[in-house]
Amino acid sequence: MKNHFFKYTFLGLALVLAPKIEAQNKTEKADELSIYRTTPLKTHDLVHTKLEVSFDYGKRYLYGKEWITLKPHFYETDSLKLDAKGMDFKEIAIIDGKKSIPLQYKYDNEELSIALNRKYKSTEKYTIFINYTAKPAELKSKAGESITNSNGLYFINPDGKGDKPTQIWTQGETEASSCWFPTIDKPNQKTTSEIAMTVEAKYTTLSNGKLTSQKVNKDGTRTDIWKMEQPNAPYLFMMAVGDFKIYKDSYKGKEVSYYLEPKYAPYAKQIFYKTPDMMNFYGKMLGVEYPWAKYAQIVVKDYFGGAMENTSATVHGEYVQKTERELLDDNQESTIAHELFHQWFGDYVTAESWSNLTMNESFATFGEVLWHGHDAGQDGEDRSRYEKLQNYLRSQKNGDSPILARFHYRNADDMFDNISYSKGSIILYAMKNQMGDEAFFKGLNHYLTTNAYKSGEPHQLRLSMEEVTGKDWLPYFEQWYYNAGSPILDVTYKYANGKVIITINQSQDSSVQTFTLPLKVDFYVNGTKIRRDILINKRQQSFSFDLPSKPEFIDLDPDKIIVGEVNVDKKTAADYLFQYKNAPSYYNRIEAIKFASKDRSQESQLILLEGLKDPQEDLRVLSIKAIDLNEKQTKDQVLKTLLDIAKKDKKTIARANAIVKLASTGDASYKSLMEESIKEQSYNVIAAGLSGLTKYAPAEADKALASLDDDTQKHVTPLMKRFSSQK
């Protein structure tokens, strides 16, 4: 799942109660965190789930009939508990041949306890029939910070008023599928399925697996049957109903389809066109072909979870849906790659509990990184990885952060954070670096094939890696998966008498573990790079190396695999300039530009001048924003380069920032650039041109804005405010 995190702060009025409430909250939180979140007990195994559903738009009800086939997991039993939230039941019976035997049950609005007609052994399957009504809109949502609603099934504009489309869609993660059908709603359960949806004939449907039949009914409805022949977890069940246009693509004979609102249908291929290439890349890399019968991606209205990797049918929020003009400025390629990688890690093999969410989300985030490397080269891969590292570092304090595989949390939604996503992904990348690509991907293949259609946890991944490499990886997993925090390395360099001495202090909080870190060090000496290995395993260590002369630059951890911070003492602008030019990994370049952005030295100005020509547009933008236009020695070259970016750069965000920067000079010769920019197709460029023109002729800018069509005005107005706020 790809989540967007929103935080809201409210001002309490009853201040006199604050101390009492605070004390109460502390007690509740402490109690919740004291609970060890075990993997759910398997009393029964789901085998097959057959559903027949129809919808009451006026009441926001689902009318369902279910045939759920199960078997005892090991011990014989005469009772069954199913998760079922906010439902009414008309009939619950066990199917015995052609007979239907009514069963006694108890229900507390969340759990359905059924007394079976006899004891069943683990070798015996049985089928329960349930006739029920689901009323998800009447449930009190248990909202979390990242998954902000838990009602399971959603009616969008069911009354059909206004311009908003009428849709139905589901969101099962974490355990909300049981809001629309009774099940064992746990991630360590797997079941095949058949879902028959009866809908108004004008609507399109989507669900897991293959569409096997469509029957037009006499009452103006149509019944679509979707069959999922491979087992998958209940939270990955999905349905969507609405007015969607389908663009059909393919991958090795399998249907790859994109469902969009009709007005966005012409851009379906432009939005999702890399999907088959991603499927091919991931399949070859993992040695496991895309495992499902089809792959669909659907964009729905008012979706709150970013995106969701339902098996064979990913749901996206509407931010993915863009016109050709919007795609000039931005796309959601990372999200598309993330959700697709889940079809292996999360769907094919599923985290056996929410405590082990890293087996889903860390891998999907890691998949994004790998895709960018394949599609855009090492620089694109390193940029993606650097972004994940920064996400994680914002979530820690003095090296302290939660455990990756954590078994104490307040609710499952807490697991969807920068630890499970970002930190976990760069831990995987560091493992790949230490192990070597061939062994690492062979280990992933072993994990996937050994646990196919089942669930997994980090220890199973570890055992797969050990099976392949013959090495004990428990120390690595103990350090990164089962202990908290990350290192902060304070580094000093000293050269004397033909030796370089590197002193490294692990300065993370004393409560955080001491890390063992096998690293490389590159010494740049007289135009030659010399590489050495070191092993950091103490709070403070020194390493000595014989070198022919004082190195121009020392690059600790040149592969940048440290999941933490590195602070080098007394590093100068001249060091960063050398770093940018001679050790130009993405990490080294962005760190040099960040330093130069805060420093006013001549060397820093030269770094920023180099940054204007950087192959990554985000680094060009950083350089554009920070560079000094009044530095006499570089002014002419800077202005010439900025003008070239403003007119020709392939990335519209770089063009826009260059336009705004040139406008800040007040030079009248750039007014025509502003006027020409307003005629462009890119909303970024138009907004930048209007923002710039405001500095020259406010009345003309207002007039130009008013002359634009409504759609263009809607897009550029907020962008203008953003550009106008830049110095």
Automatic annotation (TrEMBL):
<dbReference type="InterPro" id="IPR042097">
    <property type="entry name" value="Aminopeptidase_N-like_N_sf"/>
</dbReference>
<keyword id="KW-0031">Aminopeptidase</keyword>
<dbReference type="GO" id="GO:0042277">
    <property type="term" value="F:peptide binding"/>
</dbReference>
<keyword id="KW-0645">Protease</keyword>
<dbReference type="GO" id="GO:0016020">
    <property type="term" value="C:membrane"/>
</dbReference>
<dbReference type="InterPro" id="IPR050344">
    <property type="entry name" value="Peptidase_M1_aminopeptidases"/>
</dbReference>
<comment type="similarity">
    <text>Belongs to the peptidase M1 family.</text>
</comment>
<dbReference type="GO" id="GO:0043171">
    <property type="term" value="P:peptide catabolic process"/>
</dbReference>
<dbReference type="InterPro" id="IPR027268">
    <property type="entry name" value="Peptidase_M4/M1_CTD_sf"/>
</dbReference>
<feature type="domain" description="Aminopeptidase N-like N-terminal">
    <location>
        <begin position="48"/>
        <end position="236"/>
    </location>
</feature>
<keyword id="KW-0862">Zinc</keyword>
<keyword id="KW-0378">Hydrolase</keyword>
<protein>
    <recommendedName>
        <fullName>Aminopeptidase N</fullName>
        <ecNumber>3.4.11.2</ecNumber>
    </recommendedName>
</protein>
<feature type="domain" description="Peptidase M1 membrane alanine aminopeptidase">
    <location>
        <begin position="275"/>
        <end position="480"/>
    </location>
</feature>
<dbReference type="GO" id="GO:0070006">
    <property type="term" value="F:metalloaminopeptidase activity"/>
</dbReference>
<dbReference type="GO" id="GO:0006508">
    <property type="term" value="P:proteolysis"/>
</dbReference>
<dbReference type="InterPro" id="IPR001930">
    <property type="entry name" value="Peptidase_M1"/>
</dbReference>
<dbReference type="InterPro" id="IPR014782">
    <property type="entry name" value="Peptidase_M1_dom"/>
</dbReference>
<dbReference type="GO" id="GO:0008270">
    <property type="term" value="F:zinc ion binding"/>
</dbReference>
<keyword id="KW-0479">Metal-binding</keyword>
<dbReference type="InterPro" id="IPR016024">
    <property type="entry name" value="ARM-type_fold"/>
</dbReference>
<dbReference type="Pfam" id="PF01433">
    <property type="entry name" value="Peptidase_M1"/>
</dbReference>
<dbReference type="GO" id="GO:0016285">
    <property type="term" value="F:alanyl aminopeptidase activity"/>
</dbReference>
<dbReference type="Pfam" id="PF17900">
    <property type="entry name" value="Peptidase_M1_N"/>
</dbReference>
<keyword id="KW-0482">Metalloprotease</keyword>
<dbReference type="GO" id="GO:0005737">
    <property type="term" value="C:cytoplasm"/>
</dbReference>
<dbReference type="InterPro" id="IPR045357">
    <property type="entry name" value="Aminopeptidase_N-like_N"/>
</dbReference>
<dbReference type="GO" id="GO:0005615">
    <property type="term" value="C:extracellular space"/>
</dbReference>
